[in-house]
Amino acid sequence: MIRLTVAGIAAAALLVGCAGVRAGYETPTVTVKAVRAIPSEGLLPEFEIDLHVVNPNREALKLVGVSYTVSLEGHELIRGVGNELPPIDAYGEGDITLKASADLLAGVGLIRELMTAGKDTLSYSFEAKLDPGALRPSIRVRDSGEITLGGARGSAGNTR
In what order do the strands lie in the sheet with 75-82? Predict the structure, then answer.
């Protein structure tokens, strides 16, 4: 009798869990739209990172949170999280702006390396994990490229 009750509860939990995973769900796409320095209140520089999200599904995308990192020349300068994100309408698109400040110690290591190397370009990488909550898979974004004195050019990569 106890085994039958436990099996019934497990089956019910499985059915409820599977109800959140709908057939035909497509992973939304996310691209890095802009990265810019903003005025800061302290010694460390602050940045805004704009992401553009396209939701190809019939339900609004309500993101629970995001975690991200930005690296220059392999030095992880920025790491952050966010949890107050706007919903993206069904079959819609929208922008998300993340705010972050630089890591002082990583910045010192980068400056020391740049002073000895004398480079004209810097390689950068941006990685983010967006959490759509429930039973949806995380959305992973990777973007990388080079920054030159004349501007930036990158490979707007988007992977899951």
Answer: 75-82, 65-72, 121-131, 139-148, 151-155
As its CATH architecture, domain 23-155 has Sandwich (2.60)
Residue type, 137: P
What's the CA gap between 100 and 107, in Å, rounded? 14
The answer to whether the beta carbons of residues 122 and 62 sit under 8 Å apart is no
Per the DSSP assignment, residues forming a β-bridge with 117 are none
Structure tokens at 91: 């079959």
Q: 29 forms bridges with which residues in the sheet?
A: 54
Residue 119 pLDDT grade (very low, low, confident, very high; cuts 50, 70, 90): confident
Q: Under a CB-based contact definition with an 8 Å cutoff, are residues 76 and 119 in contact?
A: no
- Judge if pTM exceeds 0.70: no
Tens-digit pLDDT profile for residues 15-36: 444 444 557 788 888 888 887 8
Q: Where are the domains of the chain?
A: 23-155
Structure tokens at 125: 């990488």
Radius of gyration of the chain (CA): 21
SS3 call for 63? coil
Residue 60 has pLDDT above 90, yes or no: yes
